[in-house]
Amino acid sequence: MDKTVKTFFIFMFFCLGFFGNIFAQEFSADFSSSTMGQQISGKIYNAPQKARMEANGVTTIARIDKNIAWVLMPDQKKYMEVPMAPNNVVAGSDKMPGEIERKLIGRETLDGKAVDKYRIVYTNAGKTESIFTWILPDSGIPAKTAAEDGSWQVEYRNINVASQPDSLFEVPSGYEKFALPSVEDMMKNALKGAMGN
Question: What is the pTM assigned to this prediction?
Answer without folding.
Answer: 0.77
